[in-house]
Amino acid sequence: MIFKQEHRATIAHHSMAMVGGFFGVYALLNRGDTFGSSATANLIYLFVAGLEGSRQEFCIRLGAAAVYISGVVFATWISRYFKERDFRYLAILVDVIACLILTQISADTDAVLALYPMFFAAAVQWLAYTNAAGYNSATVFSTNNTRQCFAGLTEYLCDHDPAQLSRFRFFGGTILCFHAGVIYAWFCIKAWELKGIYACIPLLVWVAVATGMDRRGGHKVAEHVHKERSKYELT
Q1: Distances in whole angstroms, Cα of residue 14 to Cα of each of 19, 86, 125
Q2: pTM of the model as a whole
Q3: Which of 56, 96, 176, 204 is the most exposed place for a label (fewest CB within 10 A)?
Q4: Which residues of 46-68 are buried (b: 16+ CB within 10 A; e: fewer)?
Q5: At 105, is the secondary structure helix, strand, or coil?
């Protein structure tokens, strides 16, 4: 089937959103309700631990913040060397490595410490898969996607602007794919518990295929990494 370039980019982005959903529910269900795809909660608990004088938790949380930041720094730095090669492939590889490491971490390990590989991988994934079809959208969490989806729907209902309908569809599709990943991960976790992370690897293989389809369609990596000119920026 032949897709337009814009559709290829959307398919690749939505496919990675499924991985984001998988990572999210895997962390929440297996590691004490800790969300390993975002730094927000970790930073809040970091300050709480500091205020309460919990030195061990403070150090673990500080380490998690450092790992997440190092992922952002690494992704920003390494993307400079991928002008001719698609940086998204490296993000897929980082996700696969994170999955393999997570399978080796025992269930009795501190929840935040156990998710260090996910903190790093999520940061890299976020920077690699952030732009598609003219929109700026995260594949690792849903807050901004939800806002953009329903803001677009509301504006379309008010003004009947086709661009807002496209906005609604893109962000709505991202949300649906993210939660399709959640559902898939839930069944895998129920069946295999911590080893269920292996089931994320077939998703990543499909993401690589979808990304390849996008690249063959004339995609320029600069759209995803080097420039961020989206009309709808993340906040």
Answers
A1: 9, 17, 13
A2: 0.90
A3: 56
A4: beebeeeeeeebbebbebbeebb
A5: coil
